[in-house]
Specification:
Order of helices and strands: EHEHHEEHEHEH
Number of helices: 6
Distance between the termini: 10 Å
Shape: globular
Number of strands: 6
Length: 180
């Protein structure tokens, strides 16, 4: 069965390592005949959530920025993939801001069931990604039908495009995409 796959790339850096993993995941998913779209947050206007909670009643945010379109795509996809660099042992701030802004999704009907995380860090220890993983799992726990299906940990990737020196990680991202 072909799936709709939405990849959300959260890095703001050109030639980012997490975006390279996202492209490898996409290549595998496309070759497996899935419908794949990548959204890059570096091109988006995203305001901070102010916690007004009006979205819990209206299922719409009071802000009219790019998040509304992203939420619509998230609600209507089968698979969501988050690609993020790790900053100070946590997901990139722009990913966290996006997750906070998805509050209108909480009472909504949604299609996604499978969530993946593609993360890269300068640190060589895989535990450097535990904070990001915990944060994402907290978000996933708010959606009963959703499950974390896979994680790629691209450690030791500090300079732009340095993940390209790790063919095993690139292949893992490709294979994961191929098997969504």
């Amino acid at each position: 069965m072909n799936k709709k796959v939405l990849i959300i790339s959260t890095s703001l850096r050109k030639n980012s390592n997490s975006e390279i993993l996202a492209e490898k995941f996409k290549k595998g998913a496309v070759e497996a005949k899935n419908e794949v779209e990548i959204i890059n947050l570096k091109d988006k206007e995203i305001n901070f959530c102010i916690g007004c909670l009006s979205c819990q009643k209206t299922q719409k945010c009071i802000f009219n920025d790019d998040v509304n379109e992203i939420i619509d795509k998230m609600l209507n996809t089968d698979v969501i993939v988050f690609a993020t660099p790790i900053y100070f042992y946590e997901m990139a701030g722009q990913m966290k801001v996006l997750l906070d802004r998805t509050n209108p999704m909480f009472p909504s009907d949604y299609s996604f069931t499978d969530i993946y995380l593609l993360a890269t860090s300068a640190d060589t220890n895989e535990s450097s990604m535990d904070g990001a993983l915990k944060g994402l799992k907290g978000w996933i726990d708010c959606f009963d039908k959703a499950k974390l299906k896979g994680v790629i940990k691209g450690t030791g990737s500090d300079d732009a495009a340095s993940i390209k020196a790790q063919p095993d990680i690139l292949k893992a991202a490709y294979d994961m995409g191929k098997n969504v």
